[in-house]
Every structure is written in structure tokens, then in C-alpha cells.
Amino acid sequence: MTYNAPLKDMLFVVNELANLSEINQLPGCEDATPDTVEAVLEENAKFCGEVVAPLNQSGDKEPSYWHDGQVTTSKGFKEAFRGFADAGWQGVQHPAEFGGQGLPKLVATPCIEMLNSANIAFALVGLLTDGAIEALLTAGSAEQKTRFIEPLINGKWTGTMNLTEPQAGSDLAAVRTRAVPQGDGTYKIFGTKIFITYGEHDMAENIIHLVLARTPDAPPGVKGISLFIVPKFMVGDDGSLGERNDVHCVSIEHKLGIKASPTAVLQFGDHGGAIGTLVGEENRGLEYMFIMMNAARFGVGMQGIGLAERAYQQAVAFAKERVQSRAVEGSAGPVAIIHHPDVRRMLMSMRAQTEAARALAYVGAGLSDLAHSHPDEATRKANLAVYEYLVPVIKGWSTEMSENVARDGVQVHGGMGFIEETGAAQHYRDAKILTIYEGTTAIQANDLVGRKTVRDGGAVAKAILAQVRATEAQLAEVRDADFTAIRSQLVAGSAALEAVVDYVVTNTKADPRAVFAGSVLYLKLAGIVLGGWQMARAAIVARQKLDAGAGDAAFYRAKIATARFFADHMLAQADGLRHAIVDGAAGVLALDVEQF
Amino acid sequence: MTYNAPLKDMLFVVNELANLSEINQLPGCEDATPDTVEAVLEENAKFCGEVVAPLNQSGDKEPSYWHDGQVTTSKGFKEAFRGFADAGWQGVQHPAEFGGQGLPKLVATPCIEMLNSANIAFALVGLLTDGAIEALLTAGSAEQKTRFIEPLINGKWTGTMNLTEPQAGSDLAAVRTRAVPQGDGTYKIFGTKIFITYGEHDMAENIIHLVLARTPDAPPGVKGISLFIVPKFMVGDDGSLGERNDVHCVSIEHKLGIKASPTAVLQFGDHGGAIGTLVGEENRGLEYMFIMMNAARFGVGMQGIGLAERAYQQAVAFAKERVQSRAVEGSAGPVAIIHHPDVRRMLMSMRAQTEAARALAYVGAGLSDLAHSHPDEATRKANLAVYEYLVPVIKGWSTEMSENVARDGVQVHGGMGFIEETGAAQHYRDAKILTIYEGTTAIQANDLVGRKTVRDGGAVAKAILAQVRATEAQLAEVRDADFTAIRSQLVAGSAALEAVVDYVVTNTKADPRAVFAGSVLYLKLAGIVLGGWQMARAAIVARQKLDAGAGDAAFYRAKIATARFFADHMLAQADGLRHAIVDGAAGVLALDVEQF
């Protein structure tokens, strides 16, 4: 099953919803003209479709494997990674001074989507490397930047994030790995890290592990965690590789999905101590790690969208080809199953959710560019706040919806979907990690409630809702059945979201258990309403284009129909979610532990 | 991970909701006294927990495999099947005259649930054999019954259903397998059947294939299909095994889940023709097969419930054990994750849906007993109609919810859930077949719309809704927050279901595509409302028991809390579903095929 990047939709979102022309005017973003961006995305689409996508199923069938501390990756991965790095795709959003392309996040984001549509297991090595680059750019010394960033961007080396330990899954306060200062500016690192994505592999010459650990006098809890660079091979002043460091992969996991991506258990310091250097200041490691994590969380949201798009394309191809049973309205003989209304419903659901999540994420990427590059500080700050509100939604909702989309993808295939050969089942297996790693949906939801809603008394959420209301007013200007339906559901959805924001702001301090009992539902509601808002905006643009007789009329009509579907099928769930959040805590919390 | 049958809840449902005491008074059901039933279920629980459950994960790790036309099943399956059959578990619901226990379906149903909680892949051999027995009991000749049924009940032999062919998945009109009469009362069978569960294995001496095929002069389509017995080994008049028949397993599938269960491709007649004998009359095969299929559909619904229970138990055990992060309301140190509100919400969702689906299914089993054994014909007919309305709901909704429950089970485990060793991921993989085989959810939904709702103008649906209303009136008599909430959501839910029934009855003929665009959503709505109804009934009984000071107060309080959860989280979705059904077809059907 091939992958064809949905460039038309991507460019529509980039240009019409995420306002590339505005981003293009920001200082440092002058190169990202609409024409250049289109060319970049076309080139990326070609690489992802031709080189990376064909390795998705083969990598799943013949995963990476461990032997004697080494990991051999799936056939073709090494060469594809070489091609990826040589073409500059690792560096799309990174600074030109270290060899990157220096393009806005709004341009990198569709590239990341395409890579993940092509092959999530492959894309992970770049995702983690992006995170390492971000952390070094923010907190690394000038010398560390010079030494490490360029080889990470040109793909000579890759990066990892070492957070989790056996006793500390999501709870970084429980990190035990020790960092003992050696008096020469280096530290010796001792401990075990688990679930380290691409913690060991054969695709690059060196691996730069970014590791959370505690110095001997560090305070307990999250305030005593520092961040260290621990390279697999020591790096000389001239960038040359030196001795093997004392960090070793003792095993990799046997997983449900993303099998080609090696998930390592790393042992630090079993032979005298792994040599590490501090990033930034001691005890500020969590702060720096959050930089990586926020970038990575957005990236995992894109994985969900990429996977959903791939699953959708595969289901559409099957549904057009598979002939089975007569039409419910009668037909001479059996018809292609895409003609059956329930198959149609599943395909529309897959499509609508994917398009909505894509629009929300790209809009978020544009906000991030404004937050980083706008000359006006107040504008930067305002956009940063909205972007940060959206990050847990983009991560949590896009991945939750990708599970549903992958599930529907199997279902469209019927019995063939359950046979591994078909490939639909792989998406169902791969999707399941996305709602877990880089913080489960519940952790995203805690962030949404605590840092993103309660802390500012709901101000940012209300500011976003005011924008939704403005869109509702625009919808009212188009008088037809589609726009009436979209408006009516968006109005109900935004009212539900506003009621929930008020509930969260009012009750979190007094009754945290009740509010957090509905936190994931709040995240889902926010995803549905804000995704529905983007679909409504898309429909308005599409209507304008149609009225102006511009462009591809079938595309714009489909966009309006898809927005209509999203409204009647997704936004219509909003009030039920509101009820479950506002009135549903009693049922969640009533039982004693012994009653389970 | 062990399995402990939820006998307390099972007996509560059997006695209080499905009215065992009433069933016990039916002719032929006199042995099924509450005490006997309790003893039977306890014994079955012991067997399933001790013998079958431990083979679940090992069977997944080392699936059955094919070699030279033979299939070797997973380690321990053969011995466990011997124990299963010897203890009489295959025969629970089958007639005593053929060696069965002759117990009501209401008693067999919890046994089937337990077997499936223990091991779905193992349970399938019995499920299919049940289907073969049902078909032979209904349509077989006296001679066929004598020859075949007893060995199927005592487990010397097993049975299969051969429907699907490569070009005919769900569409039996497309069946091409040929049956050529030989003039001696036998037929030679030629063709290929796929997806044949336990179509070849080493657990019994013989396999009795029930095969759909066409005789030479048969009319086209579903009216030209006949049903044949094709044994793997020919069976002599005295029941002794004769020559190997010309039916051969050419391969088995590599599947997403239920890996221990061999899914065979069977080739009939490649070496001169497989010898078969007609069951019943020519061209009535589909009718007979529907008998098997209806029993099997109910059985697959029970698989969903069994799997959900197992996934729930595993998630609860992990959540009680795993210590991680402080409590949201503050705590001295990290707490067991069952204390975290979102984990609690997932566990309650798993529990509430499982209990509701169990209650609905067992009540359905009781209606089936009334439909078969009540002395009054009108009562039999009325109960049969309600049972038949429920079958697609029990199959479709219980399996759809089992996917969600298995998904939440992985999520509760966090990163550990994605590691196959943990076992949670197996449920997620296994669950995916349940919404597909024995008719996808869409096919169940077509049945619910067409045969079960439109055909009688919604009369049965309305009769059920009248019973729901009676429960609503009872709920109003208890004045506390839980019952007020349950009643309010049930009232809204039944109103939504009634509106949808009216919509379906009014519009199916004039606009079938619009109605079928919402058919699966109608099925889900029916499941939620009728499951919620059973939870409400359970809460009323629990309240009465508590008021009377009878029995296990913690159990009854948990039942009320679980009903409350179901109301606020599941029933609250009803109106959104109604909207998507009644107003959502435009979005589903707007696109041309080329726009996908």
C-alpha cells in the first residue's frame, strides 16, 4: 500500500487557515514564501512516499533486533536515514548556522506529518533527534552547541531522551539515576533507563543521549534533577569520535507496534561510570527536558495525524476496490463497498477527524512561529499562550482520534483487516503507543487543566472561545443547510466548552479529584470543539473560493461536506461530554479501592 | 495474570435481572434450580480459571501452526479440550438425549462468558461446535442427529461453519462452492472456503464441516444455497471413522489476534470431490445457517463481554499494584495509580460497560429460554421477538464496547501496556476480530434496521421502550442523587431511542441510504439505552436489598454507583447519537466516490 501525501489539503491548511503569508513576513521567515513552501512539501512528499513508506510494513515484519549489546535495524532503514539526512530533512526547522534550513515550524510540521504517514517507526529517530537539538539550542553552552548540533542535524549522529526508569514511568520525581561530579567538569552517570526510543541502533556513527540524573547533594523530587549529555562514543574537541562510553543497551522490548523502532533498556555506569557533561545548570534539568518534551509532544500529535492519514488512504483504496453485496437502495449486482452507507460513514469519520486535527495542529505551528519570531513582545506572548494551551490538545486529541481512525481502518477491511498481510492491522497496533508515550493522554489533560486553564483563570481558553464565536458569526452569513448545521453544532460545542472551562476554573482548587475525573474528557471536548472550529473556518474559505469560481471546486465542496460531517457527528458529542465532566465525577469516584 | 470469574455479579444478574426462578419453572428447565445453577457456575469457574485461563498468553506467544496440511495447536490446548468435553461443558445447553446437560441458555451463557474470559482462542472451538449442533438439531435428519450430535457434544469431534469464500466475505449470494449429486444420496463438493475457524486442528478425532454450496440447478443468489455435512473422516453407520475425505487445509492465516485459534483455508474436492450429505432440503441452506449464525452471534457477543471482564480484571490488578506520582489532592508520597481520578474513570468505564452488556445478554438468554420453552404460544412468540431484536445489539454493541474496554485496559498500564509480555495488548489485538466475524457490526445493524425494526413497524422496539418507561417510573420512587441522575439520563436516552426508531420506521423505504448511514449508530444507541436500562433495574434491586439489610452491602452500593457512572458517562451520549442518526446522513453521503 503506497502513501500519497495529501498535498492539496496540506497547502490549503498552511495557506488559508494557518496564514503562511503572515508567517512569511516574520523576521527570519522570509524564505518561506508560498512557492518555496509548496516546492519543499512536494519534494518531501516524494521522498517520504518513495523511500520511507515502502519500509513501513517490511520493518513491522522484520523488526530491529538485539544481539550482544548491538541493535540491527530493519532492512533499508540505514540507507533511508542516510537519504533523509543528506537531503536536509532533519534540519527543516533548525537554524541555518548549524546546517539547518531555518524554515518555520509551519513548514516543518507537514514534513513531519508526511514522514509519520510514511513510517512512524522510522520517523521516531528524527523526532527524538529534534528534541535533543531543541534542548541543546535552549540550554546548551556555546561549546556544546558547536560540538553536538551540526552532526545531529546532518544525521551523522542521532539523539535520545532518557527519562523513564523502572520505578519512574511518568513520575520524574522518582528518578534515581546518579551523576557524580569528577572535579574536571565531567560527571559519572550510574543507573538504568527504560523505554529509550532508538537508544541503540546502527543508523548513525554516534548517539547523543540526553539523560536526567541526580547529583549527590540534589534536593529530592523534581527540583533535584539535572540534564546531562552522555554520548555513546566520546567526542573529541575536534568532533572526532573517541572511546566507547559506559552506556550499554542490555535489551530491547517486544512491543505491540512500532516494531522497527528499537525501544532500549540502557545501563549507565556498570563498568566504572558513563561520562557525562552537564547541560545548563544543576537541578534545572526538568525545565530543559520540558523544552524537548513540548516539542516532542507536538511531534507525537503529528504522528497521530500522519498515521490517521495513512490508515484513511489504505481504507479508501480497499473500499473502492472491494466489491461485495448489493446496494441498500438496490443494484443490479454487488457494488464496491465504498458505496455502502456505513463504510462511507467510517471513511468520512476517518477523513473528518484527520483533517480537523491537521488543521488545528498546523494552526498551532503557525502560532508557535508567531510566538518565536514576531517583533512585538505582547504579540509573541499572546501567541505563545494560545500555542501552549493547544499543545496538550494537539498531542492528546490527535492521538486518541488516531486510535479510532486506525480501528475504523481495520473495520472497513472486514475479515481481511484482521490478517496481518493486509497492513491495516499494523496501524491499529502502531497507534496504541501514541496516546501513551511523551505523556499519556491523562498527563496531557492534567497539563491542560492545571497549567493551561486554572493558572490563568481560564483567560486563554476564553480568548480562544471568543475567536470561535467570531467564526460562528461568519457562519451565520452563509444561508444554506450545511452552514446552518455547522453553525448550530459549533455554537452548542463552544457553549459546552465554555461551561467546562468555568467548571474547571471554579472547582479545581476546592475539589481537585472531581475535576481531574473529567480531565481527559475536557481534553477531548477541547479537541472536538477546536477541531470543529477549524473545519468551520475551512468551510467558510471553501465557500468563498467557490463563490469566486477559484480553483478546484470538487475539493472545496468536499471540504464543506467534511465540515458538515464533523459538525453532525463529532461536535454533536459535545454536550454529552460536558455532562460527563460537570456531573460525572460522582460515578467515577464513588467506589472504595476494595470494591474494585 | 489469573482470571477469577465474577460469580457474584453473574448470579446477581441471573437471579435478579434475568429471573432464573421464572425460567426454572419452564417445562424441561426444572433442574435449573438456583442452587444447582450456582453449583454449575462455580464448577465452571474453577475449570476455566485453573485449566483454560493459563493457556491464554502462552497460546498467543506460540500459536497453532500448519505443516503439510496438518495443524498443531498451541501447547496444552488438546488436553484442556479433553478436560472441557469430559466434564460436559460442551453440552451444557444441549439435549440430554444426546449426552448434553439440557440446561437453559440462561445457565449456558455465563459458562460461555467464563470460557471466553479465560481464553477466546480456545473457546472458539466450542462456539463453532455449538453452532453445528444447533443446525443439526433444527434441520438434520433423525439419522444425522444420531450419528453426529453425540460425538460433537462429548468432544470426540468438533464442528465448523463454512460460509466465506475469497470473493464472498459477508455476501453469501456470491458463494460459488459446487455440490454435485452422485445419485446415491451423497454429493461431491468442490470449492475453496476461507476464514474457517478450527477448520483443521489436532484436538479431536474428527471435524464435521457444515458447508454452504450450490447444487447444479440451484437458482442464483441466496435462494440457491444448500447446507452439507462434510466430515474430515467419513463416518460409518456405527459411527466408526472411515477414509479421509477430500477436504484439506492448505494454509492458516497470520492474524492480529486470537492467534492460537487456527483460521483455515479449506480446499474441497481437489482430489476427486469431497463427499457430503445434504442437511434438510436443497436451497434452504441459508435458513439453516442462520440458526447457527444467530446462536454464534449471541456467542460472539459473549466473547466481547468475556474479553472485557478479563481486560478489566487485569487493569484493576495493575492499578492497585503500580505506585506512581502523588495524588492530585496532595499526598505524602506516590500512590497506587488506582487512586488517580483518570485511572479510576477508565476502570469505571470498563466495569460499567461490561456489567451493562452482561446484564443485557443474560436477560436476552432468559428471553430465549421463554421463547423456546414457555407453554403458552403467544408468550413464546412475544419473547422470541424481543430476543431477536436484542441479538444484533448483544453481538454488535458488546463487541464494540469490548474494543474500547481492551483499549482502556492497555491505557491503564501506560508504557507497560505496550509491551507484549504484560498481556494487556493481547486483549486489544484479540478484541478486534469480534466486531468483524459472524457479521460485522454494520451487518448486525442492517439486521436491526431491516428485519428487527422496519419489518414490524417498530412494534417490538416500542414494546421494549414501554418496559424501559416502567423502570423509569420505578426510579422516580427512590429520592436520592444517584437515582435522580440515573432516571434523568435514562429518560433522555429512551426518548432518543424512540425518536430514532420512529425515524428508521418512517424513512427506510423512502431513503434507505440515509437511514443506513446511521444504522451502526442506531445499534450503539440501542446498546447504550438498553444496557443503561438493565443497570437501572440492577440499581433498583440493589436499593431494595440494602433497604432490607440483605446480603453484601458493599456489592449493592457498588452496583448503584456503577449504574450512576453508566448513566452520566454512557447514557449521556444518547442525544448526540440521535442527532448524528437523524441529521447526520447529509455529511455521510455528500461526497462522490472520486472525491475520496
From TrEMBL, chains A, B:
It is an enzyme of class 1 (oxidoreductase). The keyword Iron does not apply. Its cofactor is FAD. Signal peptide: none annotated. Residues 161-270 form the Acyl-CoA oxidase/dehydrogenase middle domain. Residues 38-156 form the Acyl-CoA dehydrogenase/oxidase N-terminal domain. GO terms for molecular function: flavin adenine dinucleotide binding; oxidoreductase activity, acting on the CH-CH group of donors. It comes from the Bacteria. This is 3-methylmercaptopropionyl-CoA dehydrogenase. Residues 465-592 form the Acetyl-CoA dehydrogenase-like C-terminal domain. Residues 283-448 form the Acyl-CoA dehydrogenase/oxidase C-terminal domain. Its EC number is 1.3.99.41. Involved in the assimilation of dimethylsulphoniopropionate (DMSP), an important compound in the fixation of carbon in marine phytoplankton, by mediating the conversion of 3-(methylthio)propanoyl-CoA (MMPA-CoA) to 3-(methylthio)acryloyl-CoA (MTA-CoA). It comes from Massilia cellulosiltytica. InterPro entries: Acyl-CoA_dh-like_C_dom, Acyl-CoA_Oxase/DH_mid-dom, Acyl-CoA_Oxase/DH_mid-dom_sf, AcylCo_DH-like_C, AcylCo_DH/oxidase_C, AcylCoA_DH/ox_N, AcylCoA_DH/ox_N_sf, AcylCoA_DH/oxidase_NM_dom_sf.
